[in-house]
Amino acid sequence: MYATDVADDLSEVLYTEAQIQARVKELAAQIDVDYAGKEPLLVGVLNGAVMVMADLFRELTIHAMMDWMAVSSYGSGTQSSGVVRILKDLSTDIVGRHVLVVEDIVDTGLTLTYLLENLASRNPASLKLAAMFRKPEANKVHIDMAYVGFDIPNKFVVGYGLDYDGRYRNLKDVAVLNPGVYA
Ligand code: PRP
Questions:
Q1: What is the pLDDT, as a whole number, of residue 139?
Q2: Looking at ligand 1, which atom is closest to the CA of residue 103?
Q3: Which tens digit of pLDDT belongs to each residue from 104-145?
Q4: pTM score
Q5: Phi, psi for residue 79 in degrees, rounded to 5
Q6: Is the CB of residue 113 below 6 angstroms from any atom belonging to ligand 1?
Q7: Cα 6 to averaged position of ligand 1 atoms, centre (Å)
Q8: ∠ at Cα 10 (7, 13), nearest 5°?
Q9: What domains can be seen in the chain, in order of their start residue?
Q10: Quick one: which atom of ligand 1 is closest to the CA of 105?
Q11: d(CA 172, CA 167)
């Protein structure tokens, strides 16, 4: 799905599919260099990270592995509560592994703070974070991010994995949702 398919629901396209794919290639090239000879384990956080993981992973020219976690970070509303529950844990033992967590977005940072602490306690050789989008104005806690696709404004954005009520994840562009949709 493209922004033109749901034009009435969107107020502004922030990044097109082409811009996103170009940025993913740049991040992959950096990861190739930084993890040469290390065979990193990329850990995707379901569901939003599916798109960026699929694209980033295939751009890597080094050996790498993939695993997934599912957490519930939001309560009933659209704001992160900071209360995180692990719904699906890793299948991989990460002791001594170079772990790179892959996220679609870091918003308040509360989910990732919990997740990184949890993963760090399992004694990986290294632990870093890659996120396609970051909302600097929404960050409530500082998180060191090794790889960031784009910094975006503190608005309700959808597409490339980001949803509103489960919808718009399959939007190839990333756009600001028209407030009329969720009012
Ligand atoms: C999103 C996103 C992060 C988290 C970021 O997931 O994928 O995991 O929110 O928010 P925070 O920085 O404010 O904690 P969400 O809970 O919406 O689930 P989803 O990936 O299935 O969309």
A1: 87
A2: 7
A3: 999 999 999 999 999 999 999 999 999 999 998 988 899 999
A4: 0.94
A5: -105, 140
A6: no
A7: 23
A8: 95
A9: 17-154 (3.40.50.2020)
A10: 2
A11: 12
Entry field: residues in the chain: 183
The string over 92-108, giving b where at least 16 C-beta atoms fall within 10 Å of a residue's C-beta and e elsewhere, is eebeebbbbbbbbbbbb
Query: Distance, CA 37 to ligand 1 centroid (Å)?
Result: 31
Among 39, 134, 14, 164, CA closest to 96? 39
Beta strands at 10-15 and 80-88: parallel, antiparallel or unpaired:
unpaired
Spell out, as residue ranges, where the chain has pLDDT lower than 70: 74-81
For residue 165, which amino acid is it?
Answer: D
- Best residue among 86, 87, 105, 155 to mutate for probing ligand 1's pocket (most ligand atoms within 8 Å of CB) is 105
Is 111 touching ligand 1 by the criterion CB < 6 Å?
yes
Ligand 1 atom closest to the CA of 115, numbered from 1: 8
